[in-house]
Design brief:
four-stranded mixed sheet, single chain
C-alpha cells in the first residue's frame, strides 16, 4: 500500500513534472501543492463514485442496545450507507425503510404505544428511528459501508481506503 507521499511522487514521475520530486505533502506550494491536491481529490472522487464499493464495507458490525422510551439512535460517524438487508433486532431480521417513504406519517411516542420495534427508519442523516418506540433494551445490529475519507494533507504516511491493487486508478484520475 503506497502512502500519500508515494502516490504524489508517482504522479510527479508519470506527469513528467519539472523540478525535484516532492519529499513531503505537508505545506507545499506551486506545482507540488497542485499534485498533492490532485491525488487527494482523485482518491476521494473514486471513493465517492459508488457508496457500496467492497473496500468501503465496514469490517466492524454496528451493534447497540435501544433505550427504553428513546425513539432515535445516533449512527456512528463512519456510516456512509447502511446495508438495509442486514438489520436485526435481538438476532431477528427487522423491516427497514428509508425516511422518504414514511416522512408523512405521524409517530405515536406515548408510553402506551411503546413496544418492541417492528421496523427501523433510516433518517436522512443516517440516524435510526424505531417504530414503535422501544419499551426495553433490544440489541440492534447491522452492516454498513464507510463514508469516503479524504487523504490527510498533514500526514505523509496516510493511506487510501482504495486497495493497493487499484492505486494506479488514483494516479490515472489525478493525471486527468
Amino acid at each position: 500500500m503506497s502512502t500519500f507521499l508515494e502516490l504524489v511522487q508517482q504522479l510527479h514521475d508519470e506527469a513528467g513534472a519539472s523540478g525535484s520530486t516532492p519529499s513531503t505533502v505537508v505545506s507545499q506550494s506551486g506545482e507540488s501543492k497542485r499534485m498533492v491536491n490532485w491525488i487527494k481529490n482523485a482518491d476521494l472522487a473514486i471513493q465517492q463514485r459508488w457508496h457500496d464499493w467492497k473496500f468501503l464495507w465496514s469490517s466492524t458490525r454496528y451493534s447497540a442496545a435501544t433505550v427504553d422510551g428513546a425513539q432515535d439512535a445516533v449512527a456512528p460517524t463512519t456510516v456512509g450507507k447502511w446495508d438495509e438487508h442486514t438489520f436485526r433486532i435481538d438476532d431477528e431480521l427487522i423491516d427497514v425503510v428509508e425516511y422518504e417513504k414514511v416522512k408523512g406519517e405521524r409517530f405515536d411516542t406515548t408510553a402506551a404505544s411503546e413496544n418492541q420495534p417492528s421496523r427501523i427508519i433510516i433518517l436522512p442523516n443516517n440516524n435510526l428511528r424505531f417504530d414503535p418506540v422501544p419499551d426495553a433494551a433490544y440489541v440492534i445490529s447491522a452492516d454498513y459501508f464507510l463514508k469516503p475519507v479524504a487523504l490527510d494533507v498533514t500526514d505523509n504516511t496516510d493511506t487510501s481506503l482504495i486497495p493497493a491493487d487499484y492505486e494506479q486508478v488514483i494516479i490515472g484520475q489525478a493525471l486527468v
